[in-house]
C-alpha cells in the first residue's frame, strides 16, 4: 500500500472518530443540549440534540480540506521544489487532522456534559498544538500556504529561514505557556494569558522579519 493511500486512510479514520462518538452518545442525550460556551466555560447557547453532530461535521470537513491541501501542496505551489518538504507536509497534514479530530471530540463531550468547563479542555489543547507546530516551523521552506507568509519572508529565503527559526522557538514556549496558564489559572485569567501569548507569537516573528528586511536581510 502506498504511503499516500495509507495517510488518506488514517486521515479518514481520524475524521470519523468524532462523528462515531457523537453517534454513540446521541441516544442518551436530552432533547436540548448546550452548543456554545462563554469564557468561563458556562453554557450560554442551546440547541436540539441533533446539534451534537454539528461540531464533528464542521471539524471533519475542515480536516479533509486541510489534509488535501497540505498533501497536494507541491502540485500548485510554485515554491515547492524539495521532496523533503513533501514528506514534511504529509506528516503535518496528519497532525492537523488529529488535532481537529480531538478538538471535535472535546466539543462533543462538553455538549453532552455541560458541567464540564469547556475552556479548561479546549484552550490547553490548542496551546499544546501551537507548541508542537513550533517544532515544524523551522523545517518549513518557502511556500505560499503555510508559515509566516509575509512580503519579506516570501521575497527573501534568508529572511524566511531566520524568521521561522525564531517563530519555532516562540511558538514552542508560547504554546507551553498557554497550555500551562489555562490549566492552572482561572478560566478568565487563563484566557487573558492565552490571548496575550497569541499576540506575542504573531507579533514577535513579524517584527523580526520586518527589521531584518530593513537591515538588508542581514542578521545583526
Quick synopsis:
The chain is mainly α.
- Average per-residue pLDDT, rounded, comes to 83
Please, how many domains? 2
**What is the general shape?**
flat
Number of strands: 2
Q: What level of helicity do the residues show?
A: 55-70%
| Strand order in space, largest sheet | 1-2
Report the sheet-strand fraction: 5-15%
Quaternary arrangement of the chains shown?
A: single chain
User: What is the terminal-to-terminal distance?
Assistant: 49 Å
Q: Would you list the SSEs in sequence order as H and E?
A: HEEHHHHHH
Rg: 20 Å
How would a textbook summarize the main sheet? 2 strands, antiparallel
Can you count the helices?
Answer: 7
Structural class: mainly alpha
User: Uncertain runs with pLDDT below 50, 5 residues or more?
Assistant: none
Task: List the defining traits of the structure above.
2 strands, two-stranded antiparallel ribbon, 7 helices, 2 domains, 220 residues, mainly alpha
Amino acid at each position: 500500500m502506498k504511503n499516500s493511500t495509507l495517510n488518506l486512510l488514517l486521515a479518514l479514520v481520524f475524521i470519523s472518530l468524532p462523528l462515531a462518538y457523537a453517534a454513540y452518545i446521541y441516544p442518551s442525550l436530552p432533547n436540548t443540549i448546550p452548543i456554545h460556551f462563554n469564557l468561563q466555560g458556562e453554557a450560554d447557547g442551546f440547541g436540539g440534540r441533533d446539534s451534537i453532530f454539528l461540531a464533528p461535521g464542521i471539524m471533519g470537513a475542515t480536516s479533509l480540506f486541510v489534509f488535501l491541501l497540505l498533501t497536494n501542496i507541491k502540485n500548485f505551489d510554485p515554491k515547492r521544489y524539495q521532496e523533503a518538504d513533501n514528506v514534511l507536509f504529509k506528516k503535518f497534514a496528519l497532525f492537523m487532522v488529529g488535532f481537529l479530530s480531538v478538538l471535535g471530540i472535546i466539543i462533543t463531550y462538553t455538549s453532552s456534559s455541560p458541567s464540564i468547563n469547556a475552556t479548561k479542555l479546549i484552550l490547553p489543547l490548542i496551546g499544546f498544538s501551537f507548541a508542537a507546530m513550533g517544532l515544524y516551523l523551522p523545517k518549513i521552506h518557502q511556500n505560499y500556504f503555510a508559515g509566516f507568509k509575509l512580503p519579506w519572508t516570501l521575497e527573501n529565503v534568508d529572511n524566511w529561514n531566520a524568521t521561522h527559526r525564531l517563530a519555532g522557538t516562540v511558538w514552542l514556549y508560547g504554546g507551553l505557556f498557554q497550555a500551562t496558564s489555562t490549566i492552572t489559572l482561572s478560566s478568565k485569567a487563563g484566557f487573558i494569558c492565552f490571548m496575550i501569548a497569541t499576540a506575542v507569537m504573531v507579533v514577535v516573528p513579524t517584527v523580526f522579519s520586518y527589521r531584518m528586511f530593513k537591515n538588508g536581510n542581514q542578521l545583526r
